[in-house]
Amino acid sequence: MTEKALRLGTRRSKLAMAQSGLVADAVSQVTGRPVELVPVTTYGDISREHLAQIGGTGVFVAALREALQRGEVDFAVHSLKDLPTTQPEDLVLAAVPQREDPRDVLVARDALKFTDLPRGARIGTGSPRRMAQLNAYARAHGLDIETVPIRGNVDTRIGFVKNGELDAVVLAAAGLNRVGRSDEATDFLSVDTILPAPGQGALAVECTAANASLAAQLAELDDPHTRAAVTAERSLLAALEAGCSAPVGALADLLSDGRIVKEMRLRGVVGRPDGSAMVQLSTTGPVPRTHDQAMALGRELATEMLAQGAAGLMGERAQ
Hints:
This protein is of the alpha/beta class. Helices cover 32% and strands 24% of the residues. The chain has helices at residues 14-31, 43-46, 51-54, 62-69, 128-140, 154-162, 173-178, 212-218, 224-239, 291-307, and strands at 6-11, 35-40, 75-79, 91-95, 104-108, 121-124, 145-148, 168-172, 187-189, 203-208, 248-256, 261-271, 278-286. A hairpin with a 4-residue loop joins β11 and β12. α9 (224-239) packs parallel to α10 (291-307).
């Protein structure tokens, strides 16, 4: 007799289903059990408000967590950047698999690169973080752009460019890769130009703390370097007391001498959405070996950023 299928809770979007499908295959291999996807509609999926208005934090996550807590699903897969920085005590972040490309990409008309966009180009994004950095880069390099707030899935956003409403949109490289559309990106934006959202490109696999045997199996999907990096990034976000919709970018990457990983560098940025003021700093330290060390790296950089006026650039600080 075959074992009962594990139920994986996922958002209904094409991207969420694609990335949950990848995790389902991996979990099936680890556990030897079939995995079925259980689509769950979240508030963030049905609300038509801009993410910055509905608070960003947790709007794509709460319904999945409630399904877990009610026992309707056995585990859930989230985009890590959507997770609030405080973890509920009854749930455990069992695995953070190896990260996809963390960069942002441009999808522009006529296959244009960012620096080739015409004067007055209209660029769509729903992210204050992207707006702040795009506008700051444009100011520093004499480019004339207008950032336009948009919502919607990958198809909807790219559609704004195809139908001529916008000259370009900015999306996460990881999302395009996971739905097999990375060939539509016209420019991969360097992290030196735009720092991604904390945790961008990484997935979070969550189950109940009470289900210790499943948590132990899911832990086999964990990538220690990815987990250390995203823990540092999210620690920075938490120490800035900023939510997912705040204009905060962060990226931790590993520095090596070609063969041996030596250190971890954490970069952070906070800016006004119009790009008129930015605080951008980085810190480098030994690769964190524990959760606490990764958290300390994020807090240390946040303290320096706050000392340079970061709080005043975030508007309402998230509670």
